[in-house]
Amino acid sequence: MKSTVSEDGNPTLQKTRRSPSGERGQRRRDLILDTAADLLAAGGAEAINTNVLAERSGISVGSVYQYFSNKEAILTALGERYMQQLGSNTLTSLQQDVSGLDFATIVDRVIDPMIAFERKHPAFRHLNAGQEGGGTMAEAAQQVDQEILATIYDLLLRVCPELNPIQSWQIARILKALYKGMSYLIQQEKDIEKDGGNVDGMIADMKRMMAGYLEDSLS
After folding, report:
1. 113, 89 contact by CB (below 8 A)
2. Is residue 95 situated within a structural domain?
């Protein structure tokens, strides 16, 4: 994938190599990405080799290159797919009707689907860990982050319409930072459990912190 800049100055994404033509082409492209995700989850980025990828997918190496020019293009496309899915999953969670619910229930309703997504897609953790360095994947991550922040802001105004904008943005940023902390715990889950820790318990503690912060800020 290549990054360009649109007329409004924002980064846009261009497709790698070629677009799949028809349902069969889309299935083949999805198969390549699904197989790459399995390899990534099992062994990290270094485990993705076009020969192994072709063998695991049951297709030729030439077919892989029809859709992706190199390993980086595969990782970028996989990252973008996860970002799109995460963004949709997260925004759906944040857009729920939470009227009349207590803060602890609101936190559960919003956070639990987001946590479930990150656990369902272990390959995403490898991609997420490398997005600070720039490039298309980092741009996609930044875009999702901004959408999440804006949607948290809207959620806060639905819960407490009398909030002023400056206060709303401040609370939204703190809530997003707390969720990032939960995401970090999931990424480190194996090491934490190896040391005798309990990630579910730690996430529950952070959710209580989030609910308490909302109670203090909005009541």
Report:
1. yes
2. yes
- Rounded to 5 degrees, what angle do the CA atoms 117, 143, 171 make? 80
Asked if 182 and 115 touch (Cβ cutoff 8 Å), the reply is yes
Range of the domain at 173: 78-218
For residue 136, what pLDDT band results from cuts at 50, 70 and 90?
low
CATH at residue 194: 1.10.357.10
In the chain, the percentage of residues whose pLDDT exceeds 70 is 83
Contact 75, 127 (CB under 8 A): yes
Hey, is 98 helix, strand or coil? coil
| Average pLDDT of the chain, as a whole number | 82
Count of domains in the chain?
A: 1
Q: In this structure, are residues 218 and 157 in contact, taking their beta carbons and an 8 Å threshold? A: no
Tens-digit pLDDT profile for residues 26-57:
899 999 999 999 988 888 778 888 899 999 99
Q: Report d(CA 30, CA 27) in Å as an integer.
A: 5
CA distance 136 to 121: 20
Is residue 127 situated within a structural domain?
yes
Strand segments (E) across the chain: 2-5, 11-14
CA distance 186 to 121: 11
Instruction: Identify whether 4 is part of a domain.
Output: no
